[in-house]
């Protein structure tokens, strides 16, 4: 579904990603973790072309992300993305947030889009918040609207960039529950997160990154019980014991 | 102070006529130059944040030139210099056939000056409020132009209704510059009345109240717009 091959990315002289290769298969949930600054967010933003990269290839659903012939907007419409800081449109209601791209990208009628949006908002537990603006919602609710916005496009895969890092501890679970449900329904997901509990519950595989490289790409069980690299072992000790 | 107040001159037909006509021209010039300023400012401001290098440069050049030359000098350039440096036939048309040449020149000059200031506000609003949402909008599959039109621009504009109110007010006051090229707007007519009656205080009191009322109307209108489009509510958004 998503194939990353020998990806290199740098900002000026700062090398962010070095020779990253990984695959996410259909229906798989892959958690990407690692210390801050290891390139996790950059990696995930390369996948839908939000961040350009200079070397290597990424193919999504058989389509190359960096090829100039690729219709990038059409590709992005098929991959949902959820951001750390929600990035909802503050001048629109929850319903309008979810309907916008359906209307302008999928060319659904407003009525059709709104009906779909209501269904999805109800699914993430926000059926009663359709007319609320983002500023009237809690962080957890905003992030669920943002998930709904991505789901409304009927994506083939979902990318999550630290979806719970900006949330109060109490609100993390309501977002994780929605994501867990998605995973159980078979959604292909790539999730950058520090939530190791989530990884342990729903991940198929864990990518561990350090200083721009994918140090480890292992099935979940192995990652948590017997990580191959010293760096991953150290990381796990630090995040699991606090 | 040895001044003999005589408010009755404000109610004499001739003088009242002059003052009201001045007020009317002030309103016309203010509204027309604000329309020019908004259009040009929107265009140049959005061009400044466009992906095209040429458009960015051109808009930047316009803003730098028009924002840095005093508006009075610009007015003189448009009125006295332009007709002499363009091809003869066009210069002649400007001087002879253009209807209301002073008014039109004033509107263009003040509008383009104010437009350069509006452009910077528009750019600032887009950069600060609209542009950060670009990646999120693109991620949903919107094309860059759609993301710009549906998200970035509406958000950027909502953010700057406050500063734009000030620009609108400045534009109203700049309209008084047009008396230097012979437009009989409110300030000019007040001086006119003063010259005829020696009752300058009364005439300028009328002008003061006139500007004040226009200004309050502008402020009220912009506040109404701000509330209607939800700009005020957006700015109260907790981070």
Give an account of the 3D structure.
The complex is a heterodimer of chains A (242) and B (239). Chain A is α/β, with parallel strands linked by helices. Chain A contains 9 helices and 10 strands. In chain A, the strands form 2 sheets. A 6-stranded mixed beta sheet of chain A has the order 6-7-8-3-9-10, with helices on both faces. In chain A, strands 2-1-4-5 form a 4-stranded antiparallel beta sheet, covered by helices on one side. In chain A, strand 9 (205-210) and strand 10 form a beta hairpin. Chain A is globular and about 55 Å long. The mean pLDDT of chain A is 93. Chain B is mainly alpha-helical. Helices cover 79% and strands 0% of the residues of chain B. Chain B is flat. Chain B starts with 12 loop residues before the first helix and ends with a helix. The A-B interface holds A 45, 48, 50, 73-74, 76-81, 83, 87-91, 100-101, 104-105, 133-135, 149-150, 153 and B 132-133, 135-143, 146, 150-151, 154-155, 158, 229-230, 233-234, 236-238.
- Counted by DSSP, the helix tally of chain A is 9
Give helix and strand order of chain B, one letter per element, not per position: HHHHHHHHHHH
Shape descriptor of chain B: flat
Strand line-up in the sheet with most strands of chain A? 6-7-8-3-9-10
The ordered string of helix (H) and strand (E) elements of chain A is EEEHEEHEHHHEHEHEEHH
Q: Residue-averaged pLDDT of chain B, rounded?
A: 93
Strand-helix topology:
The complex is a heterodimer of chains A (242) and B (239).
Chain A: E1 2-11, E2 14-24, E3 29-33, H1 40-47, E4 55-60, E5 63-64, H2 72-77, E6 79-82, H3 94-104, H4 110-123, H5 139-151, E7 157-161, H6 169-184, E8 188-192, H7 196-202, E9 205-210, E10 213-219, H8 220-225, H9 230-240
Parallel strand pairs in A: 3-8, 3-9, 6-7, 7-8
Antiparallel strand pairs in A: 1-2, 1-4, 4-5, 9-10
Helix pairs in contact in A: 3-4, 3-5, 4-5, 5-6
Chain B: H1 13-48, H2 53-68, H3 71-85, H4 88-97, H5 101-130, H6 134-139, H7 144-159, H8 161-174, H9 186-197, H10 200-229, H11 231-235
């Amino acid at each position: 579904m998503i194939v990353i091959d020998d990806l290199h990315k740098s900002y000026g002289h700062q090398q962010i990603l070095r020779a990253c290769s990984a695959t996410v298969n259909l229906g798989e949930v892959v958690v990407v973790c690692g210390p801050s600054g290891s390139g996790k967010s950059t990696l995930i933003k390369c996948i839908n072309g939000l961040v350009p990269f200079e070397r290597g290839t990424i193919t999504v659903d058989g389509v190359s992300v960096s090829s100039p012939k690729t219709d990038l907007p059409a590709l992005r419409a098929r991959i949902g993305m959820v951001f750390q800081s929600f990035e909802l449109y503050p001048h629109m209601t929850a319903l309008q947030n979810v309907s916008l791209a359906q209307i302008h990208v999928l060319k659904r009628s407003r009525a059709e889009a709104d009906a779909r949006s209501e269904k999805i908002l109800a699914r993430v537990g926000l059926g009663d918040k359709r007319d609320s603006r983002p500023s009237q919602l809690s962080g957890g609710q905003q992030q669920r609207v943002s998930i709904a916005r991505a789901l409304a496009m009927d994506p083939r895969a979902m990318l999550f960039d630290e979806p719970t890092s900006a949330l109060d501890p109490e609100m993390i679970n309501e977002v994780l529950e929605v994501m867990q449900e998605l995973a159980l329904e078979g959604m292909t997901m790539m999730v950058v997160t520090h939530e190791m509990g989530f990884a342990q519950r729903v991940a198929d595989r864990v990518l561990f990154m350090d200083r721009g490289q994918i140090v480890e790409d292992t099935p979940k069980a192995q990652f948590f019980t017997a990580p191959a690299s010293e760096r991953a072992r150290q990381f796990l000790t630090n995040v699991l014991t606090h | 102070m040895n001044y003999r107040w005589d408010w009755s001159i404000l109610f004499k037909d001739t003088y009242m006529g002059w003052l009201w006509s001045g007020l009317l021209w002030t309103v016309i010039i203010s509204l027309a130059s604000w329309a020019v300023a908004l259009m040009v400012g929107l265009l140049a401001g959005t061009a400044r944040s466009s992906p095209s290098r040429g458009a960015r440069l051109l808009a930047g050049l316009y803003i730098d030139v028009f924002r840095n030359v005093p508006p009075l000098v610009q007015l003189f350039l448009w009125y006295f210099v332009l007709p002499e440096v363009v091809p003869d036939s066009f210069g002649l048309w400007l001087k002879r056939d253009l209807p209301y040449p002073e008014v039109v020149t004033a509107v263009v000059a003040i509008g383009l000056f104010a437009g350069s200031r509006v452009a910077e506000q528009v750019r600032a609003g887009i950069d600060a409020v609209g542009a950060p949402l670009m990646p999120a909008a693109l991620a949903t599959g919107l094309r860059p132009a759609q993301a710009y039109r549906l998200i970035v621009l509406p958000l950027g504009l909502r953010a700057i209704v406050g500063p734009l109110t000030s620009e609108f007010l400045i534009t109203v006051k700049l309209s008084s510059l047009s008396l230097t090229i012979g437009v009989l707007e409110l300030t000019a007519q007040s001086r006119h009345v003063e010259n005829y009656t020696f009752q300058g205080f009364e005439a300028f009191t009328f002008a003061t109240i006139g500007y004040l009322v226009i200004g309050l109307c502008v402020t009220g209108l912009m506040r109404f717009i701000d509330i209607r489009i939800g700009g005020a509510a957006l700015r109260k958004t907790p981070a």
